[in-house]
Amino acid sequence: MGKGTVAAYVREHYPDVWLSVSATTRRPRPGEVDGRHYHFVDEAEFDRLEREGQLLESAHVHGRSRYGTPRLPVQEALAAGRPALLEIDLQGARQVRGVMPEALFVFLAPPSWDELVSRLVGRGTETPEEREVRLRTAREELAAQEEFDVTIVNDDVARAAEHLVSLMVDPTPAKDS
Ligand code: 5GP
User: 127 φ, ψ to 5°?
Assistant: First the structure.
């Protein structure tokens, strides 16, 4: 039900929206497909991508795995006039803000702290230690909510996705509000 779920919903229901596929050093979860959900790479390959300037932004997320947005596909999507969606963390958003200030920054907020915790526990793919780290990151991200142009509360995936896509098609009113 988190950010990934909204991105998955957009992928399925809004084929006109171009979704960035990040590179990550995290191991795939069951059902995740290389090249579709992420480009799963090892540390050496991630180093190479960074060194060669192929990433628009990159970050160590949850103090563990590395994630980054391949630059060229984003540029190509924008050049083709497609609405482009990057599902990234706070550190990444700050970097993109630096190089693409015209982008719209949307904060996807959990309906409540309790809901966030139960989603994470319910998924059952993290150890208790990993969950602790993820919750710490979430607390930091919530504190930075004001830096974003818009906040969408993710209480209903379809509604959150619809709201998100509507902003991408016509971001002007949201940026002004
Ligand atoms: P997960 O491991 O659950 O798929 O993602 C963990 C976190 O990494 C999420 O907060 C997600 O937004 C973030 N993330 C995924 N891809 C990228 C990326 O390309 N860059 C950055 N900075 N964060 C990312």
Answer: -75, 165
Nearest-angstrom CA–CA distance, 3 and 86: 11
Q: Ligand 1 center to residue 68 CA distance, Å?
A: 8
Domains in the chain with CATH codes: 3-169 (3.40.50.300)
pLDDT at 176: 47
Type of residue at 37: H
Decide: 95 in ligand 1 pocket, CB within 6 A.
no
Q: Which residues of the chain fall below pLDDT 50?
A: 176-177
Q: What is the pTM of this model?
A: 0.90
Residue 171's pLDDT is what? Answer: 60
| Ligand 1 atom with least separation from CA of 22 | 19
Residue nearest to atom 21 of ligand 1 (CA): 88
Sign of torsion, CA 9 158 142 103? positive
Residue of 5, 20, 21, 22 to mutate, ligand 1, most atoms within 8 A of C-beta: 22
